[in-house]
Amino acid sequence: MWPVGLGWTCLSIARRSWSSVSSPPSPLPLRSRMLLFLVQHFHDIEAIVSWSSWLGNWTRQRKNVYYSYAQKQFGSNVAAAFYILNLKGGFRLAGQSDWVRPNAKGKFSLDFINFSDLSIEEVDASGTVINYMGLNNLVSQQKLRCLSLRGCPEVDDWFLSRLHIFKDSLEELDLSGCSRVSVGGLSALHHLRKLRKLDLSSLPRVQNPGLVRILLEEVLPHCHIMGVEYQEGLQSSGAETDIKATSGL
């Protein structure tokens, strides 16, 4: 027979043990849970970011590849047209009034192949990933008069330095919203002696845009420069030094 006091003691110990086992652990604070989640998934996030960056580079390279097969089969004019349409841009052939563009799904008619003897006179590559290497597809278009590059994320100073290939034909150029263009790239435009219209709106890397406009008008006296007012950034003379040093003016 157990003593009465010992029985109550065992019963209370058992109750406390059962209570400590059955009670759920207190939840971690929100900050701790977020840190734990990030630690557990950091490598997955890093892999996703790395893969996304690789995919973006691969897409840009694929879209700017040289269309050698089309050039061999149909000629340089058709190859250039294929390149522009696959960028989801548009063009107008010399002597034609209608523009050729892909539809919302990126599909387009192949009727332009029947006009393989006509060169491209106007190109609208606005918002596309056209870059320096992709210009290889347009080198043959020596009658190109208008080129719109509005909002193109891959258009940079290297790209502008290569536009001299159109120095005998290009009359209109739209660079508005090209975030990678700087004064160094704009200085290369002095080769385009036939340029009559130039849009320099919204170029965040161009400091002292008013002074840049004045200097460009000196080397391109017949060109109407849009999107920049004379009074913008005239408080500093740094841009004048940069553009003259780069262009050799």
TrEMBL record:
Required for the assembly of the mitochondrial NADH:ubiquinone oxidoreductase complex (complex I). Involved in the assembly of the distal region of complex I. Interacts with incompletely assembled mitochondrial NADH:ubiquinone oxidoreductase complex (complex I). Belongs to the ATP synthase subunit s family. This is Distal membrane-arm assembly complex protein 2. It comes from Paramormyrops kingsleyae. InterPro entries: LRR_dom_sf.
